[in-house]
Amino acid sequence: MTHRIITIDGPAGAGKTTISNLVAKQLGCVYVDTGALYRGVAYEIGQQGVNWKDDNCLGSFLASLDLNFHMENGHFVLISSGKDITPHIRTPEISMLASATSARPQVRAALLTIQRNIAQSQDAVFEGRDMGTVVFPDADFKFFLFADLAVRAKRRHEEMSEGKTDIQKVEQDMKTRDANDSQRKEAPLKAAPDAVKIDSSHLTIPDVVKIILKNIQKG
């Protein structure tokens, strides 16, 4: 049996997580936050003090990594070695480390297997940066969300607890990460040629969900 795969790629702050979750609920699919998987790897690298630039060290770490997820009350919960690490993976430091470590071929290969195994067993909406270009080049439907940097930084700043981080720093970190993700040799951030591109700068979340569902229904 062939399962329906929908990919939603784009930079940080474009609204991918919320929109992908809502699309999955509307379609009755599982929602997979692949960015959270990479953040989980980065979190454990930081916790364990792994020298991720050394192939042997990184290989040993990945071989012992026990990363999984489940949905709880409609929310993506990331589990590492039996522990919920979801509350710890959204910091600016983890974001930057995830951007750097995700460029390592060993990391991408390890998570590629997890992602494709999920797709073999059920219909799914995969959110990430290279879902439609590398992980699922034959996906049934592909979307690429983007928005102005200032808009994305404002959104991300509002998500952060009590606005402790300066918005200028949020914007600069996001700009740096955009450059890292789009310029890396291994699976750079870019829209698949056949992806539907959506500028979410001035659209509401329901507007974007409606556009995506309309394209899928036309499909």
Helix-and-strand structural type: alpha/beta
Return the CATH architecture. 3-Layer(aba) Sandwich
The main pleated sheet reads as:
5 strands, parallel
Work out the helicity level: 40-55%
CATH topology: Rossmann fold
- Give the total of beta strands: 8
Assign the CATH class: Alpha Beta
Taken together, the total number of domains comes to 1
Order of helices and strands: EHEHHEEEHHEHEHHEH
**Strand order across the largest sheet:** 2-6-1-7-8
For the record, what is the CATH homologous superfamily label?
A: P-loop containing nucleotide triphosphate hydrolases
Contiguous low-pLDDT stretches (5 residues minimum) are: none
Rounded Rg: 17 Å
Distance between the termini: 19 Å
| Total helical elements | 9
